[in-house]
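Render this sequence as a predicted structure.
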Amino acid sequence: MSGKYSVRAHIRAQNLEGMIVTTTLQAHHLQTTAQLSNDLSPLSLRGAFGQFPSGVAALASYTDDGVAQGMVASSFTVGVSLEPPLVSVAVQNTSTTWPLLRETGRIGVSILGEGQGTIARQMAAKGTDRFDGLDIETNNDAIFVAESALWLETSIYGEFPAGDHVVALLEVHNLADFTDIHEPLVFHKSQFRNIRDH
C-alpha cells in the first residue's frame, strides 16, 4: 500500500503447533497475534466458520401429497453461475427434510429478512409444525416466507457429495427482490444479527 496506510507483517515459526503471525497496522497503531492451529475438531471448525457472516435461507415446498416441507440453511451461496443462473446450498447428510424437498418440482428459497431470527429458529426446529403461524406465499408448489429480503424459485440442477454434507446446485427460474424494503438477516458467531445493528 502507499501513503500512511502501510502494513508490515512478520512471520516466524513456532514448534509443531503452527506459526505466529504478527501484523502491525501503522495507521491505527494496532498489533495482533494469531496462531495457526492443527485442531480441526468439529467444535473448533464450527467456531472458526462462525466468524464468517452469512445470509439465512429458508428452503420450502409442497410435496406431491400436499404437505409443506421446509428447512433453514446458512450455508447458502448466490451467484454460483449467471448462465445458467445457479445458487448452491450445503445440506447435512443426516437431514430428513432434504430427501423430501429434493423430490419436489420447485423449491422456494427465502433469504430471510431482518427481525426474522424467530422464523429461522422455528423452521430449523425438529418435531414441530415449521409453518405454524407463518405468513407464506406459493408459486408452482414453491413456498416463500413473507417479508423476506429475497425470493428465488428454484429446481435442482445437480448434487455432489461433500464429506458429511451434500452440495446441491439450484437453478433459479423466478425471483423477487425486496431488499429495498427488508435488509437481510445475518448469521454470525452462532447468532442472528441485523445489518443495521452494525
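Summary. The helical segments are 42-49, 98-101, 117-124. The first strand starts at residue 7 and ends at 14.
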